[in-house]
Amino acid sequence: MKDLTERVRAFADERDWQQFHTPKNLAMALAGEVGELLAEFQWLTPEQASVVMADAEAGARVRAEIGDVMIYLTRLADVLDIDLEDAARDKLTEVATRYPVSEAKGSAAKR
Amino acid sequence: MKDLTERVRAFADERDWQQFHTPKNLAMALAGEVGELLAEFQWLTPEQASVVMADAEAGARVRAEIGDVMIYLTRLADVLDIDLEDAARDKLTEVATRYPVSEAKGSAAKR
Amino acid sequence: MKDLTERVRAFADERDWQQFHTPKNLAMALAGEVGELLAEFQWLTPEQASVVMADAEAGARVRAEIGDVMIYLTRLADVLDIDLEDAARDKLTEVATRYPVSEAKGSAAKR
Amino acid sequence: MKDLTERVRAFADERDWQQFHTPKNLAMALAGEVGELLAEFQWLTPEQASVVMADAEAGARVRAEIGDVMIYLTRLADVLDIDLEDAARDKLTEVATRYPVSEAKGSAAKR
Known about the structure:
The structure is a homotetramer.
Chain A lengths: L1 H13 L8 H19 L4 H5 L5 H24 L4 H15 L2 H4 L7
Helix pairs in contact in A: 1-4, 2-4
């Protein structure tokens, strides 16, 4: 992750894009990329979506969109000085308390 | 990252949530979490957004939302058998060709 | 629509919220509300989603989220001086040319 | 609005797209279009975003994206048998109670 964070930062620095990379703008860009990812799945049945990676073309598009989402998420976290993996781990610990296995098992209730 | 991927997977497995964690559903959940992240920034001026982490309460909320986004992105990548960091690195390489430093420097044109 | 546009505008004016209602902020708020709408559907099977309005509680939540999305979309269009229905009609005409019935019939290809 | 709803419905019917237009898929498509709308604003300063309609090209793109969002929102509401304007009006009434003018005036607190 550190290497990726640094590569994304260097990419922006070299192009003088720090001026555009405010938290607000990056959050918007992240949402825009997630929108493109959604577009890959929106007309697929659940069955088709489950095997999307078996299709070379669609699979490559999905992988590229996920790459885009990860780039902006990494950049946003860097700009905010948040460790992405730590934030996820801490959140997971918190959610585990809110949804204990005994109660949450197999239930689709709000999660 | 591997450790995080495995923790998220174990979290879902223990709760029998694999049935809900289809690519389509996870892409939607990811978008939902990004929506919550946007909500943290939407009424802030760029200046306020830039110092959001200095506010203990707002900062904790932003970090938690970023954690949520990372959890679902990690889970989606895992379900699709995509290496998140590799996908980001490959995309970065591709984008670097499309926006060479010489042309992209300081320009806000579509990126 | 005119009546709704005016009611939303009056709502914002009375609260001195014009200062927050910039196009950028409103686009983010719109995306945030769409995220909440997605959250209503994300864990449902297609079958469950198709009958969501038959469930009084979930149906009311979906209707309220759609109301929220419509409020922000109406407000954003008003601030940009765009007629929402005209914009939709014009886009529909354009898309009809791009996807003529003869070619698009029953096909899930990019639309 | 009725006319628009009917035109969008006819558009889908003629192309046999009802099969793709499930609530879940339409919510995703709506989010995807909102993502494209966000992309129009993401690198603009608040000042630039405020005059975006004065630029013929960018203005046309924003109008087209708003048209797309409205098309999918109209279609989603139709499929769920929700009156879009009524849903917005009811929500506005509810929110007015939650944020009375006397308390909400000029405040950026959660809205």
